[in-house]
Amino acid sequence: MGIRGNLTPQQLNFFNTQGYIVIESFASPEEIKGMRDRMDELLSDFDCSVTSIFSTKNQKESTDDHFFESADKVSFFFEEKAFDDDGKLKQSKQLSINKVGHALHEHEPVFKNFCGLGKLLSTLVSLGYKSPAIIQSMYIFKQPGIGGEVVPHQDNSFLYTNPTSCTGLWLALEDATVVNGCLWAIPGSHKNGLVRRFIRDENGVHFDRPSPDYDQKDFVSIEVKAGSMVVIHGDLIHQSFENQSSKSRHALSLHVVDTKDHVWASDNWLGRRVDPEPLYVSP
């Protein structure tokens, strides 16, 4: 027998009309602690003499081989504001990292186990996936005081399949509030389709067209408690602001695509040497 979906008709209707849903208490306190403890270990062992900065504002300029080669590895990326004028960290590496990605789900058992849970698969089946595969996983820190802004974007821009199939799964590992940089989205914006793509070609990485102008009054905040998962349609316009508070906002961000009857675009920025293993194949 195949896996049965676990989303209610009401949840599916909200997702289809608004472009996202919040599933409260998706992860247990024990699961959250396991992922946070493992990340503490990874950071402790990390040699920060090799630095790479992640920025959604200046990704073309800051993109390097470390970023390109991270598709099927566990790589570390620093915040833009983590360094002084001499290129030295202003504070500990634990408070300077922007994110770790993009293959935690493949190489780290704690994260791999969470990604293989039946409740996650059932959510994807509810959304119509036939052969879902996690194409990237990221542990995002949103550090106190320096956690960078993530500008308005659509996930399908970066992880394009034909036809489009990306869904974001954003798990709060700490409470996410307006003060410490929660998600914001334009409800219903997914109905307008994909507005641009982020591609990689002989000229490096770049968007194929300029960003539209968005009215900030159209965005709504998505404040959630630790353990809640936000499911994000691949065409939903969403963003987050800088964390100007004294509290971090840790989250696990997964992006899923369908591998059945969908073709991964060869000009996506994310180049993998090995195709991702589907979490599930429908009978």
Notable characteristics:
single chain; 283 residues; alpha+beta; seven-stranded antiparallel sheet; four-stranded antiparallel sheet; 7 helices; 19% helix; 24% strand; globular
**SS element count, helices:** 7
What is the arithmetic mean of pLDDT?
92
The share of residues in helices is 10-25%
SSE sequence, one letter per element: HEHHHEEHHHEEEEEEEEEEEE
Please indicate the percent range of residues in DSSP E strands (runs of 2 or more): 15-25%
Amino- and carboxy-terminal Cα gap: 8 Å
DSSP strand count: 15
Envelope shape: globular
Sequence of strands across the biggest β-sheet: 1-12-7-14-4-3-2
This entry's quaternary arrangement is single chain
Low-confidence stretches: 59-63
Major β-sheet profile: 7 strands, antiparallel
Radius of gyration: 18 Å
Structural class by secondary-structure content? alpha+beta
